[in-house]
């Protein structure tokens, strides 16, 4: 599928391009984002940068042999060096030129690297997002101060909006995943933030049946964050879901998990937290692996025939429109003629 035939364009927003630990000082890496290469590098002092892949001199690719020299990125072809502001600072023979690197807005949060993709920046897009250098329309929330201890990533033939929509599709969690997850309050919308209130009842080894309150917050279509208290063991589970569009209708989904479980008589123990984080990650990965065959083959419907209990899907889609400035507005989701109750508040399921 090419970009013009995709049912949805690339969205604007912040999207994960990797882990901080994979970019130590002096390292240069190439990542794929919205059908383009983006080059990441970290200076010797620890500053991290994201730039367009090609040298403005004669087009050499920085990811194919480029090096970090102090605070500069050096082209592998002719040795032109570029400073933190993107300007040319010199070359082996002292020559400079006025061309500058195409800078990308990048930030680090909790051990994760994000690049801003603004409207109109994609190649031939003009109506969605792309890894351009424009000023971000909004900022990511402050760091929570905890880095993930366990990571997983995999590709799905889908779009970030489709991946994120699963957070409000409670019917699929019962049918596909066998989880008793229910919405406890209507979603809250605040600009690029969308918060889902839900409760999941499940069984934990050694703990029996446990009911977990799980507020889930979406920060645009590139970051979902969930924090769950585990009163039975006095611990906390934090989960990050990070869908990144790498090509038209291909999304790299990353799961990141940190579990903190105090040990009686010891308190915090890194080895225990790491083991608990890996166990929790496996549960998350099992869910996306169950979703993957469906996402790989489903068709995006601009007017789905929603039924009672799916009102939040319509709210989510209306919220998501803000990430496609200039794209034709999506019609209101359609409802089965006998399902008009789906527009009304749901009765208390308790």
CATH topology (level 3) name of the largest domain = Naphthalene 1,2-dioxygenase Alpha Subunit, Chain A, domain 1
- Mean of the pLDDT scores? 87
Structural class: alpha+beta
The CATH architecture classification of the largest domain is Alpha-Beta Complex
Region (Disordered): 329-350
Subunit structure: Homotrimer. The two-component system 3-ketosteroid-9-alpha-monooxygenase is composed of an oxygenase component KshA and a reductase component KshB.
GO molecular function: 2 iron, 2 sulfur cluster binding; metal ion binding; monooxygenase activity; oxidoreductase activity, acting on paired donors, with incorporation or reduction of molecular oxygen
Protein name: Rieske-type oxygenase
Task: Explain the overall architecture.
The chain has four helices and 20 strands. It has helices at residues 160-165, 170-175, 270-297, 311-320, and strands at 13-19, 28-33, 36-42, 48-51, 67-69, 72-74, 81-82, 88-90, 103-104, 106-109, 112-119, 129-130, 150-156, 180-190, 193-204, 208-213, 216-219, 224-230, 235-247, 250-260. The termini are far apart. By secondary structure, the protein is an alpha+beta fold. The strands form four sheets. Strands 13, 14, 15, 16, 17, 18, 19 and 20 form an eight-stranded antiparallel sheet that branches. Strands 1, 10, 11 and 12 form a four-stranded antiparallel sheet that branches. Strands 2-3-4-9 form a four-stranded antiparallel sheet, with no helix packed on it. Residues 120-127 and 334-350 have low confidence and may be disordered. The chain folds into two domains: 13-130, Rieske Iron-sulfur Protein (3-layer Sandwich); 150-297, Naphthalene 1,2-dioxygenase Alpha Subunit, Chain A, domain 1 (Alpha-Beta Complex), CATH 3.90.380.10. 34% of the residues are buried. Strand 2 (28-33) and strand 3 (36-42) form a beta hairpin.
